Amino acid sequence: MKIDNILENIEEIGDNHVSSSAENPLRKDAFEKTDEEKIAIIQQDVHNILKTLGLDLEDDSLKGTPLRVAKMFVNESFAGLHPKRKPKASVFQNNYKYGEMLVEKNITVYSTCEHHLLPIVGRAHVAYISNGTVVGLSKMNRIVDYYAKRPQVQERLTMQIVAELQKALGTDDVACVIDAKHLCVNSRGIRDIESSTVTSEFGGKFKDKNIKREFLDYINMDTEF
Ligand SMILES: Nc1nc2c(ncn2[C@@H]2O[C@H](COP(=O)(O)OP(=O)(O)OP(=O)(O)O)[C@@H](O)[C@H]2O)c(=O)[nH]1
Ligand SMILES: [Zn+2]
């Protein structure tokens, strides 16, 4: 994809529904380097970090780590930063006139906390009410995964998922709840292994108390929002 198209794509994401606060802070030159160029630079950076910590990078087990981490950042953990990886949300006409709520629950979330670069692991529950368009079920999981593969805060991730589905489905009637553990809270710092974080975004009809309740009942949440 050409850089102009990519920037256009980002602007388009910004325009429609996604408020500026729901965008990951990206530099203007974010996509000027190829993935291969980024991997080569990050490999050197990780090498320097480990060397500074005093590790012997000639060691057989460690010597592949800088490249391994660089590839993981670019191709896996943070792959969703690049708009070229945005999933195509195949939509269909709702010819069968299903008018009730559709809930895709227990979608696995693996993301990364942007403050500590430690994992966020949990579940997302996504729901929408069709206004004539339906989306392929797996596309909801793919949209969650795409936005999760970025340095994130959970609030922004939740909002981005809703905004993307609102755009694909042409309706505001979309909601998302995420319940996730942040390893920066569980494994370091306060080291609270039990706590998890719940975030929600309720668009359109989901702001209605009864509709919200129906959704929360489907996902077995007693939490009052
Ligand atoms: N709102 C929000 N905060 C997050 C998220 N992920 C991590 N954090 C918090 O970001 C904060 C960063 O605070 P700092 O005080 O700069 O970091 P720190 O000194 O490592 O803080 P401690 O984690 O309390 O040791 C921490 O309180 C994290 O728990 C998230 O998704 N949303
Ligand atoms: Zn953190």
From TrEMBL:
Q: Where is the GTP cyclohydrolase I domain?
A: 42-219
| Residues engaged in binding Zn(2+) | C113, H116, C184
> Which superkingdom does the taxonomy of this entry point to?
Bacteria
Is the RNA-binding keyword given for this protein?
no
Gene3D superfamilies xrefs:
1.10.286.10, 3.30.1130.10
What Pfam families does the database record attribute to this sequence? GTP_cyclohydroI
Task: Provide the reaction this enzyme catalyses.
Answer: GTP + H2O = 7,8-dihydroneopterin 3'-triphosphate + formate + H(+)
Pathway terms, separated by semicolons: Cofactor biosynthesis; 7,8-dihydroneopterin triphosphate biosynthesis; 7,8-dihydroneopterin triphosphate from GTP: step 1/1
As given in the record, the signal peptide range reads: none
Name of the protein in question? GTP cyclohydrolase 1
Q: Which organism is it from?
A: Mesonia sediminis
